[in-house]
Amino acid sequence: MSSTALLTDRYELTMLETAIASGLAEVPATFEVFARSLGGRGFGVVGGTGRLAEALRAFRFDDEIVRWLVDERVIGSPTARYLEHFRFSGSIAAYPDGELYFPGSPILRVDAPFGEGLLIETLILSILNFDTAVATAAARLRLAAGTATLIEMGSRRVHERAAVAAARAAWIAGFDSTSNLAAGQRYGVPTGGTMGHALVLAHPSERAAFEAQAAVIGSSTTALVDTYDIGHGIRQAIEAFGTDLAAIRIDSGNPFVEVRRARTLLDELGATKTRILISGDLDEGLVRRLVAEPVDGFGVGTKVVTGGGVPTAQLVYKLVAVERNGVAEPVAKLSANKETSGGRKAGYRRLRNHRIVEEFSIDPAVTVEPTDDSTLMALEVPVMVEGDILDPESAAQSRQRLADRLPTLGEDLDAILDATEPLFVCHHLGPSLPRSGHGQHDQ
Amino acid sequence: MSSTALLTDRYELTMLETAIASGLAEVPATFEVFARSLGGRGFGVVGGTGRLAEALRAFRFDDEIVRWLVDERVIGSPTARYLEHFRFSGSIAAYPDGELYFPGSPILRVDAPFGEGLLIETLILSILNFDTAVATAAARLRLAAGTATLIEMGSRRVHERAAVAAARAAWIAGFDSTSNLAAGQRYGVPTGGTMGHALVLAHPSERAAFEAQAAVIGSSTTALVDTYDIGHGIRQAIEAFGTDLAAIRIDSGNPFVEVRRARTLLDELGATKTRILISGDLDEGLVRRLVAEPVDGFGVGTKVVTGGGVPTAQLVYKLVAVERNGVAEPVAKLSANKETSGGRKAGYRRLRNHRIVEEFSIDPAVTVEPTDDSTLMALEVPVMVEGDILDPESAAQSRQRLADRLPTLGEDLDAILDATEPLFVCHHLGPSLPRSGHGQHDQ
């Protein structure tokens, strides 16, 4: 992986300049990632923490990068010297991929010298904001689809590298496979895909295309039957592949009409086990309604890889504590509608009868134990420990986590998916800051 | 750049298997990228064609990739042998970055053996769909912002590599700078950025933070004044930097109220030349209304890098011709609401008095000339010629193109931005396909 150091907002380096000059760069500080909003939804799903290790390992300022920064007058000599030897020395703890989160959840905490904590803000937020948006949209589609197969096929609708991250996030969130081969190679996500309209169009006839496919792959494939007329296409497919044909795919038309017709026709032709997959501009609402129809699987593209209407998770990265006189002092801004909650935090979730009761954050130095019959779950896991980057868990482990977590939201699926307000808010249990803040010290 | 070959949907390789077996892989074919819809807008702006050259150069199947594909049973031996020696041998022509487009515009044309044309579909669409979505949103923001400064600062809200492409696309579309350093290094986009709330919070007081910044950078900077109380912050900033302070930034609160208050206060303090920049969840609608206020510049994040409500350009890649008996025969699918228009096409635009009159596509082999006092503009430029990848123009050249093009849409800015239907549709001038298509040959 090429260096990730310049995947950074310029202001981080400008601030670093000032912090080096004022002596703040080396002062221990704590930064936190959290969301103020879930974008009108009931729950969020963390994505991207499993990609952080690789990105942090590649966060190095080589000679060429430092020279460019100096030439562009982004930094001066003291900062250049600082960056030449830069190696992140702090610790990072985070909610792992596949964990649920709510407004206020301390999704990631960086404990590091102030200057180091500044530098990695943009990279961390880029990774978490994109992957989390996709994981959340995908988890909702998984709930909506019930037991039907879900295929992520949106690679062509997002940036080419984002597509790989999206496929990983969607699989963690419960999709069965992806069309994206790089996600298969890199993260072990199962890949799938059979044919598009080009193959049909290129052959002299639809029948010729199916026969060519049957000769190479046999009947364990999916025939795309809507290039011309769907009924005609289904007949051609069954004649070419036989009644053992694994599946057909319909990518156009009114799916409510077409899947019933297709099921009837397939059954008439004796292809009673041939599955029906549909694709084409599907979203969560359509999937929820279509599960009642004879559909066996959904191919979802745009509406999963672009977050299903919420294309970024709106996570922010804020300084929450800085050491003064040897003590980590909480800090918070008071900007209108953008207040922050100061202090170092770790997240915990309380469950009763396997259902979430509450989520709270508390100083990680405090030991917490359940006081009743509820179960208490510590939510953060280490990503870096004093400069050592830990290997992340596999995508499969993250996928299992979310499969375990989704039922803790409750049994009423409609209520969970229809919620326009967060189902829970993570409360901070800790000393509250004086509302005056530090700004008033000036006067 | 690492190989881009697996940034591909699996079905391209499955289709290639069939095409190799049926002899179609080597048959000359033409594929086309176009949009059916502009997502409820009047015009689109092409982005991403300038990134294709680099991506295509890296589209190579090395031994490791081929082995993985075989091990995963994506492909068999004949396809493995084909890929080992794969080098794209076709030609690609495209609307360059910064060109306007409309539904039906033949944005990109691939003339290549069928098997080769299949393989690059996903990569091309990923690049064009993302970059075009950002370029279009950014161009609309540019029109909305008038002469005010526009700063792209959305890197933290999209995938870390997508952020670099987004910064490039936004700059081509008329933004003045980006926060993203990698876009500066790689594409020459001007970068900017001064301070965030963390710097203020880390210092013992707001005044101390401004003084530290002033000591390092002087007054040619932007002070972020809303960490605590905006009026207080402005007074502290002018005291620390002096009345020569270049700019203040306000990132919270009601901008309609705050910018007027800020202007009055700055003028009272004698900082009459200090500019006011605002940021924080700005979108096209807010920018259009805020240009009437005393705002000198806008920092836009989420709403430009995620496409301003249209996060993907919905461009598709379709087979439009395939050689049969030595002749390039047009092909088209008839799927409900997803019909395509067959035949090779190149795009032309007719202008009169520097305004667009119409856009049309026609067989590139046909010579077209204006028949009246209008000007005819050929829209496509070569990207690859028979396997040779051409160097793309610079982002600065693309930026100049769009600056020249935007006035050709007309003078009524409100009508252009308020349009919910395309202002033009690219008509195809050519022999129309029989509506029956090839599917009916089967019966």
Automatic annotation (TrEMBL), chains A, B:
The Gene Ontology terms for molecular function here are: glycosyltransferase activity; nicotinate phosphoribosyltransferase activity
What does the function comment of this entry state? Catalyzes the first step in the biosynthesis of NAD from nicotinic acid, the ATP-dependent synthesis of beta-nicotinate D-ribonucleotide from nicotinate and 5-phospho-D-ribose 1-phosphate.
User: Can you tell me which family this protein belongs to?
Assistant: Belongs to the NAPRTase family.
Q: Which organism is it from?
A: Acidimicrobium ferrooxidans (strain DSM 10331 / JCM 15462 / NBRC 103882 / ICP)
Pathway assignment reads:
Cofactor biosynthesis; NAD(+) biosynthesis; nicotinate D-ribonucleotide from nicotinate: step 1/1
A GO cellular component entry from the record: cytosol
Please state what the protein is called: Nicotinate phosphoribosyltransferase
Catalytic activities: 5-phospho-alpha-D-ribose 1-diphosphate + nicotinate + ATP + H2O = nicotinate beta-D-ribonucleotide + ADP + phosphate + diphosphate
